[in-house]
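Tokenised fold entry reproduced for everyone:
>
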Amino acid sequence: MWAVLPYLLPLGIVIIANLGVKRPRWRLLTYISLGLLNAVMLFMGLLFLSVPYLLRLSGRALSPDLQSVNISGLGLAFAVTAILSFACLPAPSRRMLARCLPIDPGSPVHTTALILLVYLAITSASLLISSQDLISASIEIASVEPGTVVLGQAVLLLFALAGVGLGTRRNVRQTLARLNLRALTLRHVAVATVMVGAFLAMDYATALIWHQLWPASYESVMGSSQQLFARFASPLGALVLALSAGVGEETLFRGALQPRFRVPLTAAVFALSHVQYALSLAIVEIFIVGLVLGWLRERTNTTTCMAVHAGYNFLDMLLMPYFP
């Protein structure tokens, strides 16, 4: 449960932003909250940037656990995140972005979504670039508990539901329509089945190429992944992982974010958020999966994307031991 605490503040801002659509005082509170959040991020960035210099002045060294982390790189990423987020607060900046994204420059909800997307994208990218060794080392000595995965995906689901205004601007029916969550038809099931097969074929082909061209990277990431998801190796465990990820990630990325940030940007942030795969060919594959799921959402619905995502994850988890 403690892992959820860092998300409570941004989730609260999302709810306040929805209340601010029709209430000026809540709208003002939204922008004040976003400004304070950016100020904290900027402070953390400057603090991280100063750590190496402060240690040098004091004659101390980083602890062994932190020596594999690029502290300055993370600090720079936090500072850049804060600066870009501050740049999104003035209305002229959002009006410029609205030329290429279907966002409402005057909406506190769209402003909040834009800033939180900046946070997710840059912090994820910085973790991929700055902390590959630390991520791999952490994964090698730990495995994810099923409850942790379900809780994490529940957080994504909450962000999606709160972001589109469930309980503040929309009722349940309106929320389902906005997220494009509709009942599956036989055609949707057939399309999902074909897509799952295509994704599995692409996954196996990627594994073969990856294993042949970059064997060290492949062995490291695959070994870490097997250790990380060791508790999901059974059919029941794979089902829990598949359903939770399918519902949580698809509701947020394809259901809530894609209509405002388009397919390529949403797919890119979706790929970056999978930091457990470090900088590897897996991130490219996930980006392609995100593009295809985005295309599928435009032509069917989010529920079909959930079915594809869940089916692919389930079978991929069970077939992982048979990969190269």
